[in-house]
Amino acid sequence: MITLTTPIEKLDIELPRVGKKTAQALADSIALLNACPSREQAKVEHLLFYLPMRYEDRSNLAKIGDLADGMEAAVAVEIKVAGNYKVGKANQHKIFEFSGEDGTGRIRAFWWNQPFLEKTFTRGSHVILFGQWKYDTYRNSLTIENPDYEIIDKETDPTQEAIHMGRCVPVYRKLGDIRTKQLRTIMHNLLELLDFSTLSENLPPQLLARNNFINRADALKQIHFPPEYVALETYNRAQSPAHRRLIFEEFFWLLLALAVKRTERHQEPKGTSIEVNDQVRQAVLNILPFKPTNAQKRVLKEIVEDLTSNRPMNRLLQGDVGAGKTIVAAQAIVVAIENGYQTALMVPTEILAEQHTRNLRKLFAKTNYRVELLTGSLTAREKRAIKADIKANSIQLVVGTHAIIQDDVEFHKLGLVVIDEQHRFGVMQRAELIRRGYRPDVLVMTATPIPRSLAMTVYGDLDVSIIDELPPGRTPIETRVRGESSRPKIYQFIAEEVRQGRQIYIVYPLVEESEKMDLAAATKMAEILQKDVFPHFSIALLHGRMKPQEKEEVMRKFLACEAQILVSTTVIEVGVDVPNASVMMIEHSDRFGFSQLHQLRGRVGRGAAKSYCILMTGGVKSKEASERLRVLEQTTDGFKISEKDLELRGPGEILGTRQSGEQIFRVANIVRDRVLLDLARQESEFLLAVASDDPFTKKLIEKVLTQPKFGLASIG
What we know:
By secondary structure, the chain is an alpha/beta fold. The chain folds into 5 domains: 8-54 and 174-242, no CATH class; 61-165, CATH 2.40.50.140; 251-267 and 673-714, no CATH class; 278-467, 3-Layer(aba) Sandwich (Rossmann fold); 477-635, P-loop containing nucleotide triphosphate hydrolases (Rossmann fold). The longest helix has 26 residues, at 241-266.
């Protein structure tokens, strides 16, 4: 009997046409996809969630005589002539080509640099080709380039052939060495023999009825083999009843787990006791250098409500570049200090820590607060002195990197921790503080805008505040994409800006030449710019391999206008604030991602002068890079940019999980399925708020808390 928990490597015992080697290869491939840790742990359920990439209607295959230029269709043909030939200079490329017929016409199919296909496609064999057909006027025939294909075995058992023809069929990506046809057979036989009585429903019946969802067993069957009565286009758009049910289920379980986790956090013992009276309000007002925006006021109100509540704060503060997150955080710090607590500001880099320390000392100049910097580059003597003063409660605000939460740093009374630009690590840092006996309120800040749907899903354990308004008086940054032919004019423009008293950033991706990547290096180009292009201006160089003291001196010179042009790597991406800088020139901009480009652009436009961002490109750009640069030219709205980033790259890569192999969802897609995401949030909140006494609901919540697949381990 096959159940969802049957090991894949044991399927050779149960499934026809599956030998031991095939079963083990299936298990290995599923494990490699990171659906499970090892071959032994790969279960039938993991295999069933290896879903088709698309679906084809083979109940009525197209005929060659019906094809038209530009048409996408599946066609079954018999191969008449096949072979390889060489093309290009020095015959460096190989093309495999065959011609085929179906009784209504003849076509040509060809593949670049795949000579091994000569063994796959033999004369007289039958094959189904799928892709876009084009009319070749030179050869007067329809052609298809690099199509998907499937060999039709004429001697196949008729019962098996019914799986692949005369119906709507799933088309799978190759899984290891197992091609789509073999995988389709395996999936079909697996679903035929699976004991669905062991597949219990995991959503409340009222929820299913309320939203017209099909049951789980039917969803798993239909997502692989669509029934005749459902329109195929709904399957290819992931909008079929089967897709809707399984997508909702994934969203629902995650959001329910996050809601339970948030409820648990709210029930944790509060480590601080904070109140806001007239004295605290006046202290907050005294540090304000300007009138806050309505968005800043709203967000501060949300933070203060957390600080004064009986539950610990764990809030994510989002805001676009230049939206004024730091001043809001500074106000929260004042509230905590005025209540007798120590505070800490943690940042990812020493250069940012140094700048924050400098700015906060200016901001708190009229107070008696002591602000100190604690980083790894301080001398042992300096560290000992600062750590002793932290323990003695003579320092009110400590600014630094991860060194702040090392074991030998002892706070006398830590009340608030602000974590800047590390939203993905905020949970871990908070857990480390709790392990050491501290229970401070935690505010996590990011200038990388994340669409609310994504933020509330991935950071659902955090309460989310968004500053969606820029301070008045900001001049919009003009962004232009330019190629090498424009370089002389751009250098003239930069010289003009410098003569008018402005300062310039020129950013390069690398510190020194790389043999593997044809990128200009910052160190080399700084010398060329100083000697040959801008000999009358002072040029400074900043990069990540410099010692902290060297970085500090470079930034001091640039801030003091002793250097007009700063040539830098991306160490200036976050936090560097020079109001006099008016031009950001980014070399090889097509090699950067959305977030980096937007952050770099945000280093200018911080003063009253008109500011510019010049995105330099060289050579051939990918389609995605061209689209990315086009969007950056059109908008400076970080949230719109982030939405487009999600569309182009997907949530996995934005969250840093694509390279690690971690799958956020098996069926669902945050961008495509937002309607179902919102529905799942509403239903999970309703379940906890209204139906929590229901026996089925209690079992669901218990499942969330105890099973790693659904529980907190999957989202920690």
